[in-house]
Amino acid sequence: MSLILIMALAAEAAPAAAPVTVTVANVRSTKGRVHVALCPKDKFLGTACVLESSVPAQPGTITITFPAVPPGDYAAQAFQDENGNQKVDQNFIGMPKEGIGFSRNARVTFGPPKWADAVFAHDARPQAIRFSLRYMLGPDGPEAWAKAHPAR
Question: pTM of this prediction?
Answer without folding.
Answer: 0.84
